[in-house]
Structure formats: C-alpha cells, structure tokens
Amino acid sequence: MLRRVSPLSKLISAAKPSLLNQGAYGLNFLEAFSTDALKPAEAGIMSKARTPTINFVLGGPGVGKGTQCTRIAETFGFTHLSVGDLLRKEISSNTGYGAMILETITKGKIVASEVTVKLLKTAIESSETDRFLIDGFPRSEENRVAYEQIIGIEPEVVLFFDCNEEEMLKRVLHRNQGRVDDNVDTTMQRLKVFEAYTLPVIRYYSQKGKLHKINAIGTEDEIFERVRPIFAK
C-alpha cells in the first residue's frame, strides 16, 4: 500500500549522510570513465567566451520538472538539459555503456556519477549557448562532488519542486511516455532513492542559500507563476 506522506521537504532535516554510499549498487563504470572524467575542466567548458550560467532543477519522479523546465527555458532563454534524456539517449546508442545505464535505471537506481557528469559536460561543451537549466541533477552527494571536481561551476539557482509521494506516483502512472521506469515497482524504488540520496543535496544547497522550494501541486500555469519571479529578477 502506498505510504501517505507529507511533502518531501519536511524530510530534509532527517536525511542521513550515512545513506550516501552508493557502492552497494554494484555497477562499476569507473574503469571506463576515470581516465579523463575526474580531471577538472581545463578546456572545453572553460574555453567558452563566457563561463556558462548553471541552474539545477530537482524533485522526485513525476513532480513535473521537465514540463516546468520547458516553460522556463522558453520564457527566459535557457538551454534545457535533462540528465534523464541524456542517459536515455546513451541507452538508444546501443553501446556497452548504454546497456549498463539501462540496467541501472530499470532498477530505479542512480547511474554512476562519473558517467552522468561526463555526458553532462559533453552536452554543455557542444552547446552554442552559455545559459543552462539542468533538470534532474545532482541526484546525490556523490553526483554533486563529481560535478564540482569535473565541471566546477557553481550553480546560480537550485529549484526544488516539492510534492507528496502519492501525487508523484499518480502522475508517473498517468503520463504514458513509454519510459522503461514508469511502473509502480520502479517508481516506488525511485521515490526511496530520492528520499535517501537527493534530500541531502537539497539540504546542502539550502544551507548555501541557493535553494528555491516550489510547491508543485496545482496546474502547470499555477506552478510556473510560482517559478517566474525567481528568474524575472
């Protein structure tokens, strides 16, 4: 039976740092990516005419991040990078890495940080723009640390779309996008992963004064109007 819970923001203070060890997930991508992934960016991103502006967007599965990111990007001129889309694109490439990514997300787990950040770095470097809205990242403290080591650009804004589990599950099961992880079992696992791994990231950025919590209950337009003032400054 689905747990009825309060909005996940109330769990931030209770999130345990000891849960942040992702080694138990068993998939080791380090050998394939460690050669250059862990080196701080010396070229590529930093060779752009201007240092890119980075904004992170966080929230549980089905909270509506993608929908709102599209609106924000169109209204304020950002390039929307969905980490989930980057991973799914890698899966569709039919590479060995894609197969390992598929196995990980099908289980509702978090893909190794070195893989995710490398894909993100490549997307930023290959873009002709320098203002980015990064959707679904960082999903863990390990993601955050890897990002700081590899890319190293401080985010200007971190959005957190806050919603209860029951509503998120309902949205996931009704969005009918044909995604391999859009089913009850995987979504419940993703919600557990979000609570254990992403809430500490949210707490970190809250303490740094960068977090903007958005009530994600309401219509698409109502939620966007809560976001608009943050970027209209």
Label this structure with key terms:
single chain; 233 residues; alpha/beta; 9 helices; 5 strands; disordered N terminus
Q: Would you mind describing this structure in some detail?
A:
The protein has 233 residues and is an alpha/beta fold. It is 48% helix and 12% strand. It has nine helices and five strands. It has helices at residues 30-37, 65-76, 83-92, 96-106, 113-126, 141-150, 165-175, 184-207, 220-231; strands at 53-59, 79-82, 131-135, 157-162, 211-215. A five-stranded parallel beta sheet has the order 2-3-1-4-5, with helices on both faces. Helix 1 (30-37) packs across helix 5. 37% of the residues are buried.
Radius of gyration: 17 Å
Number of helices in the DSSP assignment: 9
Poorly predicted runs: 1-6, 11-43
Helical residues, percent: 40-55%
Whole-Å distance between the termini? 44 Å
Which secondary structure elements does this structure contain, and how are they paired or packed?
Elements: H1 30-37, E1 53-59, H2 65-76, E2 79-82, H3 83-92, H4 96-106, H5 113-126, E3 131-135, H6 141-150, E4 157-162, H7 165-175, H8 184-207, E5 211-215, H9 220-231
Parallel strand pairs: 1-3, 1-4, 2-3, 4-5
Helix pairs in contact: 1-5, 2-9, 3-4, 5-6, 7-8
Q: What is the structure about, briefly put?
A:
It is built from nine helices and five strands. With 233 residues, it is of the alpha/beta class. Strands 2-3-1-4-5 form a five-stranded parallel β-sheet, with helices on both faces.
